[in-house]
């Protein structure tokens, strides 16, 4: 633990920011619905967030090179806190769309700074412990922060003030706890064409998961509120899905290390589709049934990104690991930009339950593509398989932080086309 002590301030800041970001995502949907914003407007706010996030991922390294970690972090945290407060004083759709775009840009940059800092400060022998601790912090912060909404209340100024306070407080451990301010990392080399050549099904899978997960994350509070859930129930509904994904991800990863990953990906997608259809058909009939079905949905929907990435890594050369996983995160972001608005439009036409019908249709298309690719290409030999790594979609730098635990240490290999 002594060797991890210098990283505690950064991990503390990460917990605060992850919690604030998770809180904001749920609150925007709830408060927007209370203010009379249409589902399409709320969906477009989700689209704006992920568009800002994508741009932030692409430009933040240059900002870090220009001004350093601490100054970049401070500027982005100040902008994110200001954007949060602007939403409290200007209840207007266009203003909220712009502020969500700024928030997405800022959070992409903040996560990149933190993960770059962690990557530069962790030794290879401590990397597994830091990754495990980071994932625990992510799960605890995001799920726990949901319950600040019923405690503080979704209406009024106070909840926005709490979010701004959380973002601002993240500056304290970063500013006072570490004086190293390491050199900015080099830009992650992105080659989307090469990533597609390595594994078309992984690229398509990340796009599909981006569409469905972003739609769920943005619009599920609207769905839950529209079917009569209280604010506390909405927070529980969102949290249960996150917990399900966290608990089941590692058993699925263990299975994928021992069998054709595409088979595990196929079964997992089929179960996510079944859970989505069950929510569409039955979840309006009871609160406990909602919670049970969304737990199952999260258990199989959330790990699909990491399973897709693991399949792609089995086909890549060891020096392509960072590039590939950064490219897959961008594929995810492309899907995430379109997902919320498309799902919101479907919900406006067919009602709140159609959120899960929308997801089921996307999963059905992905299932068909998996079956097609399984016929077109043989599975990767077991000797080529790396170990499954659960990947967070927080920044392109996360691939560097996780690379020692993934497939980097496996022999060189090239993807067949």
From TrEMBL:
One example of the protein's molecular function in GO is: transmembrane transporter activity
Taxonomically, which superkingdom? Bacteria
Q: Which GO terms describe its cellular component?
A: plasma membrane
What Pfam families has UniProt attached to this entry? Answer: MFS_1 (PF07690)
Q: Where is the Major facilitator superfamily (MFS) profile domain?
A: 198-417
Q: Which positions are tagged coiled coil?
A: none
The UniProt transmembrane annotation reads 41-61, 73-91, 97-118, 130-151, 157-177, 198-216, 228-252, 264-283, 289-310, 322-347, 353-372
UniProt KW keywords = Membrane, Transmembrane, Transmembrane helix
In terms of InterPro entries, this protein maps to:
MFS, MFS_dom, MFS_trans_sf, MFS_YcaD-like
Q: What is this protein called?
A: MFS transporter
Q: What is the lineage of its organism?
A: Bacteria, Pseudomonadati, Pseudomonadota, Alphaproteobacteria, Hyphomicrobiales
């Amino acid at each position: 633990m002594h060797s991890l002590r210098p990283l505690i301030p950064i991990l503390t800041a990460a917990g605060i920011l992850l919690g604030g970001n998770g809180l904001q995502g749920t609150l925007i949907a709830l408060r927007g619905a209370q203010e009379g914003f249409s589902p399409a407007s709320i969906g477009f706010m989700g689209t704006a967030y992920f568009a800002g996030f994508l741009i932030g991922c692409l430009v933040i390294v240059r900002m870090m090179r220009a001004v350093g970690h601490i100054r970049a972090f401070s500027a982005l945290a100040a902008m994110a806190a200001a954007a949060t407060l602007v939403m409290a004083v200007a209840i207007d759709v266009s203003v909220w769309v712009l502020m969500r775009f700024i928030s997405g840009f800022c959070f992409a940059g903040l996560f990149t700074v933190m993960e770059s800092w962690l990557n530069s400060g962790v030794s290879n022998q401590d990397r597994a412990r830091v990754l495990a601790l980071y994932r625990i912090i992510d799960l605890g912060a995001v799920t726990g922060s949901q319950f600040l909404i019923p405690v503080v209340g979704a209406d009024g100024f106070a909840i926005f003030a709490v979010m701004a306070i959380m973002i601002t407080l993240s500056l304290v451990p970063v500013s006072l706890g570490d004086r190293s301010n390491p050199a900015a990392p080099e830009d992650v080399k992105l080659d989307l064409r090469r990533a597609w050549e390595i594994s078309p099904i992984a690229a398509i899978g990340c796009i599909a998961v981006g569409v469905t997960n972003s739609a769920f994350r943005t619009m599920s509070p609207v769905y839950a509120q529209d079917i009569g859930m209280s604010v506390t129930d909405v927070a529980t509904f969102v949290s249960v899905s996150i917990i399900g994904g966290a608990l089941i991800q590692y058993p699925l990863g263990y299975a994928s290390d021992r069998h054709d990953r595409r088979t595990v990906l196929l079964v997992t997608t089929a179960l996510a589709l079944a859970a989505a259809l069950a929510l569409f058909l039955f979840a309006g009939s009871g609160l406990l049934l909602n919670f049970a079905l969304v737990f199952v949905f999260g258990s199989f929907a959330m790990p699909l990104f990491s399973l897709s990435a693991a399949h792609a890594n089995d086909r890549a050369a060891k020096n392509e690991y960072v590039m590939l996983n950064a490219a897959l995160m961008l594929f995810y972001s492309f899907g995430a930009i379109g997902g919320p608005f498309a799902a919101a439009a479907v919900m406006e036409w067919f009602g709140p339950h159609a959120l899960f019908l929308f997801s089921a249709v996307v999963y059905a298309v992905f299932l068909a593509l998996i079956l097609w690719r399984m016929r077109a290409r043989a599975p990767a030999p077991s000797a080529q398989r790396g170990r499954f790594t659960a990947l967070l979609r927080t920044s392109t730098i996360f691939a560097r932080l996780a690379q020692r635990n993934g497939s980097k240490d496996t022999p060189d290999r090239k993807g067949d086309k």
